[in-house]
Fold each of these.
Amino acid sequence: MAFFFEVLITGLMVGIMYSLIALGFALIFKASDVFNMAQGAMSLFAGLALVGFLHQYMHLPLWLALLCTVGVMTIWAYVIVFVVLKPLVNRPPLMLFMATFGVMYLMEGIGQSIYGTQAKGLNIGIPDNSFEVAGIFMSSFDLFFAGVAAVLVAGLIWFFQKTRNGRALRAVSDDHEAALSVGIPLLKAWYLTWIIAGIVATVAGVAWGTRLGVQFSLSYIAFKALPVLIIGGLDSIPGANRPLFQALRSVRKRDS
Amino acid sequence: MFYRECGNFKDNYASDMAIFPIPLDRWGFIVMLFMAFVIVPLFASEYLITNIIIPFYCFALSAFGLNVLAGYAGQISIGHAAFMAVGAYSSFILYGRYGIPLIPSILGAGVITAIVGTFFGLPSLRIKGFYLAIATLASQFIIEWVIVHVQWISGGVFGTIEAPDMYLFKLWAIDTPVKKYYLSLCILVLLMTIGKNLVRGQLGRNWMAIRDVDYAAEIIGVNLYRDKLTAFAVSTFYAGVAGSLITFCYVGSANIEEFNVMTSFALVGMIIIGGLGTVLGSFFGAGFFVILPIAINQSLGAFMDVVPSDILSNIESIIFGGLIVFFLIVEPYGMARLWHTIKDKLRLWPFPY
Amino acid sequence: MGRKLSFTIFALVLVASFILSSGQAMASEEKKPEQFVGLLAYRTGPFAAGGSGLTSGKEDFMALINMRGGINGKIMYKWEECETAYNAARGVECYNRFKNKMFKVHPESTGITYALIPKATKDKIVVISSGYGRADASDGRVFPWVFTIPTNYWSQNTAKIKWIAMQEGWDGKDMSTIGKYLKGLKIANLHIDVPYGQETKPILDAMAKKFGFKVRHFPVPWPGIDQKAQWMDIVRRFKADWVINRNWGVSCTVPLKEAARLKFPSNRILGVWWCGAEEDVLPAGPAAKGYYSTNFHGVGRDFPIIKEVVDKVYGAMKGNISFTRVGSVYYNRGFVAAIVDHEAILTAHKKFGVKVLTGEEFRWGMEHLNITKERIKEIGAEGLMQPLKTSCADHEGGGMVFFQQWDGKKWVSTGDVITPMRKFVRGMIEKSAAKYAKEKGITPRTCK
């Protein structure tokens, strides 16, 4: 029985890690109807940038490095929205999807040209100790990121439900034209969404990067996160955080 | 001026319904065929034929298959490479293990793939849009898993099947690149002719009706379920044939890693960059995704002494990604639309009006 | 519309001219004849760390030889790279691009190796898969054009089992007593679930039957970024004594972290040689300390020949990789492969005279390699590589497996260099090769 609970909890933890990526997908899909292929690449780029600021090129303190990374992701958000997506407003979603496919290649190429291709360790000082509670191994690292994910989701829910900008974004996602007619600037709303998605991608990049090392494979996590997204709902932010499914999956894997 | 439609009178039904109603198009097409059948094998180098033109044909075929599904019937699939894998493996099994003649086994592989594809098309009856896309993505992973794990298919530990020597009617060995070229070209022309007629016939019109507004299509009497599933069947048939051709004529061994999810995305890219719902677009898109990376790679080779090779390889993907974005921005409806625009201009050129 | 259209046409013309210009080769005006080497590299993608190291190691060795005045002082190396991105179709394209001028090919990927074996056999080009590819290609009678120099996966796994027995107290000499130490041991084979990962399942099963230990296979789905479920199984249910880490790329790193989380000792994990590079363990941080891996060559820069590369090639700023990676595992692996090829060229020169070799002549050289300990000392690679002696039937050569341990900062050789159970492996290889020959209708050639 203890083993069952251990599997369940482990699965939950894995699910939370995946939901960090799924969250980015859901955000952008909700706001701009774009199925963002580049979400994994964004995490990769954020991870690479953080390593660059932290270890590789500069040795900034952690908070400053994180801030700079978010800054870099903001620049990317600007480029994506105003260079790539702006000319494609009102096109079928499939074209937007393809455009993010191109952005994915761009990001991977540029990121690896600047920061190199070898796997880099990322250490942000979160202890990865494991401890035992009632015969179940837990990792402080997993718990920390579970907490971060919870805060992130709570923050986003609050943002979308309570703030003016959040409501504007929701209006945009409901109906582009109606939102435009009541005076919400579409591109600005998208820009905001992509910035938020960039921040989420940074968190995911840090979480996965400390775990796997910052390397190209980070961009693959996005594909693995897709089932989470589908079960949770493509356009639902709390839905993206439904790791229970993941837990069930690992229980099933154990039995097979 | 140069591209004229006038003076071309249709005085019977047959000429009204011809594939190329305009003589210029007809002549252009014949010239293209002549190029493909005579000029290319005569003058192109072996490298060009095996590495660029054969894969180009195969991917054009596969892209057309996806175009039937996504461009005509409006059902997006991002697991199409897996169907190519099904075709590749089943044709090898049919030909290599059971000794069925070459052409029947290639087409039979298409039929097997169509059966598999119809099965994976079942979700399309209930869901659409990106949800369907994800369901087809699942088919990609399921098929990959099955092929790797079922020993009977993949051949056990060394999970790759090598292409047996090809013989047509047990007499002609298809061994040189030119012969392989002709094999793929003949199948391409045959299937494209069938395909073009399919999409402009009743079935194609049904598909387009489903694509545009599905419930409206149902109201006017289109059998939604049947036609969605036939779209899947036809589309995966083309994918299967393309998959078997690419392994028989190009790679020489069926390897599951080659038909991975990135190939699936590339196929989607081909039809979007090329032009959704056009036959011509399938060719343009295949050219973009097959020829362009090789061209970029080769031309960057000239800079090998100047730029570190690490960066050079990454520049390749930057250029490729940049071009995708560029083409989408310049012509969101694909290169086929660009072609139409050029034709429109040529109609009047050099006069402004 | 008009402006947009003309802009687009301009872009199309640009692309077209790009394609056309690619056909031109650069004219070279070297006086000495050149031996062309086509390199299949992958410097992008998930395995870029491996691909860049392997390729640059070979390039640096060839650069060194050129600086010394060429092969036998008369022939220069000339090489060109082609990016495969670890993709079989692109690998085949690269092969076809080079095939008219090259005499050997290192596919550097199991998938590409499989695709190239039939082609290269037809084109008379030697395929060298150092430590990857088909293990049964070591049978030179069925695979005359393929070399698995210096060792293959099956040899590696028998050496691993021997080494594990030694850790359990076996003296390492008397094969009749090895069963006593292995009996009842539980060994988990954690493998990536692609053909490469599944390749060693039969030999492990066969050994388990023979020596009485228990082996269970734990497949990790590609790309293996998440292995929590497998590790729960390994540690909690199977309660493994040893874990064999048979992964590739990022999936090599994950097990170390997972093991640490479940308090499984890292010095009970033994990696395949593709999981034994700096890039695999560095991201795991302290969790990797104590982790063992196999190898088939030495690590570090502490060898005369590598010092010479550092002095001459990097001194002249002609290096092909960032200087910090010289002496890393993948770099040395490429470097050693280049040394072996070079020795084969020298051997062939002895028979056919000093000239630009064809594939056939080079194959003769590969089959008559005899790199003795003295020769290795002469090259300046003592400890970097193992003695090799090939023959017409034996395309493996040495087969020796090195063991190394990660001390938290660098790889340290444990000093164990273990000969695999050659007879046992050879039997399986011949059986498997015979099966392949029968399927493909090949008549194995006879070797005197």
Amino acid sequence: MHLLSYLIFIPIVAALVILAMPARLSNAFRAVSLTVNILQLLVLLAIVLNFKISAGYQLIEKTPWITMNLGAWGELRAEYFVALDGLSFPLVALSVFIMFIATVSSWTIEQNRKGYFVLLLTLNGAILGSFCALDFLLFYVFFEFMLLPMYFLIGIWGGPKREYASIKFFLYTLLGSIFILIVLVGLYLSTKTPGQADLVHTFNVLYMQDPANLISGSALALDSNSYLGPYSFRLWAFLLLFVGFIIKLPAVPFHTWLPDAHVEAPTPISVILAALLLKFGGYGLLRFAYPIFPDGAIYFSWLVGFIGLLSIIYGALNAMASKDLKRLIAYSSVSHMGFVLLGIASATVEGITGAVYQMFSHGIISAMLFLIAGVLYDRTHDRLIENYSGLATKMKGYTAFVLIAFFASMGLPGFAGFIGEVLVLFGAFQSKFINGLIPSWMALAATFGLLLGAGYYLWTIQRMFYGLFSVKNYLGNLADLDSREYSLLIPLALAALVFGILPQLLLNYINPFAAEFVIRWFAPETLIP
Amino acid sequence: MGLNNQLDSIYESLGYVWPELILTFSILVVLTTGLIFKEKSHVTFVLSGIALAVALIPVLITWPQQPVSLFSNMLRVDDFAAFFKVLFLIGGLLTLTITGKKKEAAEFHLLILAVVLGACLLVMSMNFVMVLLALELISLSSYLLVGFSFDRKSAEGSLKYFLFGTVATAVMIYGLSLLYGLAGTLDFSSSPFIDSLMRTQSPLLLVSCLLILAGFLFKMAAVPLHLWAPDVYEAAPTAVVAFLSVVPKLAGMAVLIKLVLSFYLFGQSVYLWPEMIAAVSIASILVGNLSALVQTNPKRMLAYSSVAQSGFMLVGLTTLQLEGIHFAIFYGAIFLLMNFLVFAVLTYYEKHGDINSVNSLSGLGRLSWFPAFSMLIGMVALTGLPPTAGFTAKLLIFSSLWSSYQETHSMILIALFLVGLLNTVVSLFFYLKIPYFLFIKEAPVGVTIKSSGFSNLLHLVLVIALIYLFLQPDLLMGWINRITFVL
């Protein structure tokens, strides 16, 4: 069937096709890109039909990739190993959907379309590849491969401070991935393929997750007694993976690249950044850091929870103080991704389910928020909140969608954001009684974040949309949404509603994964002393 | 041994050194044809190209080569030497292709051949006298090559290189004389040499070994003997820089590997060789990368980058194990490709104007995307990011370092591991500077750029090689894995 390979390689092949086309066919590039998105949606449909709702990996494709003799150190084996489970399935579906939205939203790009769409399609393939890969090396390659297209997309098509923002983004995320690489090198040399007579070092994540496959006596084995300063190597490895992924998430104090990158990036790229790239933080923790080093996760659970809480509160306070609409949305992302971290830290079924659900719902809602910010910026080239007032009187359709997006984002019941956040809070409250990983005051304090969220959104609505109509620094006629913008916002708004009213649609997939995850690595009876 | 026997042995040995004979012969031919066709530079260009290509044939057809000692233990042919010879010959060929028109072309081509010849002899040497002769052949020829722009600046660079180089050689000879006194023989592969080193307790042994290694660290441009690199790179013609940053560096590395293995005495040495190399490696990586950060001249920047890259090559050697050295050789081979790619694009841009500052490259990538794209791939490979073989090479040498750490639990190795990998982030900042100016800055009005089919083809070949070796590193590693070391 090779459904996942189609999903990953259709955009990459299309990027090569565009590269070979002459630059004057500038309208054709959009068409090719849109065709790719439609093909991907069809493949996604086939995947949905083939995906059975149960725990476990499906649609597995596995072929040897690199096999190399390391002499006395055995053999190195990396595979092209892709599959979906309850964690990656919602994120893959989200990616295909968001990439479609991003292409349509890129319709107005005028400057150097050829380069733009080549990079966009490469990014598309790399994102899907990273979500599907179950070989750590393959994941890492796709993961790194996202950085370059993103760097150029922000650096060439971005706003006035794009050069600073793009290099900051690149350096920050590269630092994160180097942390991951450090662990990767140590980890594969400590892992052997089970059932092989010879020593075969593997990058297979599923093998890495089973401590029985760690070579006894290696620095990262369970019985390892290698220490560096206060912590054992396993704890250090967890910390490195943790920091590597929360840079991407991003969590306070590693979040400072995000507002810059978001503010300077063109609208479609902001959408991809917020809706998809941030998800690799949570995904990486749930796929790699937690299952491979559960002992580290338990040891540092307080820290993880606290950083989550810090992000929730600090992000929300920053959002409240932001003068720029896009910056406000960027900080609200930091705040919402804090919930993901808190849910993961709780290591309860509710918390994990909530974290994955929150990633999905934030993907949809943040895409909507950035599109909304883009609509205004397209018209006036000004994003300062204080320069607007009474927009509701002139732009009725726009105001309606802003209200939907803001309410969805602040976690109003009935919207997708509510489900994720409430599940996370359930998990966080229960953690104390189930496994004792995070104290209940953190859960209590996190609820305060919801309140702050309502605060900055309502205040923004009041400042920008109510009152007498006035727009500073802009004299033209402020047009309401056009049909292309409606076609972007309606599907997103519908998705936010559908997944808020019928959460079972998604929970069916996520819940078996979360249950298995908790039973296998964080079973309560093994945790409570 | 009678004279007859000696003559017989020399005659037999000649059968093993075909590549060197071909190179020597072609140097003479190029010299004489250069005198005849003074104005026609392409004649000697073609001749030397053919010579390098033909010299590759005997190396490749005798692979795999059983180790054979030649000329009463002066030289030895083996797989290790053969692999490096292939790299040198390819390096020479690539240099010729990116050179373009030159004044005094015959001499230029002759000197390139002479450096390649010296490098080939150097990797085969088993005797310190031979090492010295081969090294001087490389050095003298490269001093001249640096001056080949025939202007004040390049004369200055040439002189600087000469002064630094002769001092390094003098220091090395001093070390050699000390070591000769201690060991009683100059054949560093022989058992009397090893035996006497094992018996020697004198701290003078360490001093003499370090003085000898200094000569090769100079050739590799590793810290603390890197000071010549930026000035020389800036002054020399770009094609020569490409050549000098690869061929003598790899030759220096090859001898360094042989000598350090010999000094290490299979782990019997009382001196901490792995730790010392690790210290040089850390220093090279740090100094190279941090100094490169502030450079605005692309060639100066690449000089510091080459200092850092030497540090990375030494990482494989710190393990002093077969596998680690294999990976160091792999890194060297990949370095040849990525460095030449970068310099090939630089010489291409040089044809359109000055490249004394990255500013002059502004926006060129927007005018013609392919050369700039090749530059990007080269820089990404030098940084060590996927999807290029530069990533694979870094992954492998750091894997060997980690394995070595697990065996020895030496703290400096873990420090090198962390410094090396974290420096990727630092290096990205300056490696990306050139692509940043090429793509993100706007080109000044009126700048045009001619697309050239031939150089595009060359770039394409190197780009494909770098990506292909990322996807299938076993292709090259399988070859390198067969290299064994016998002392």
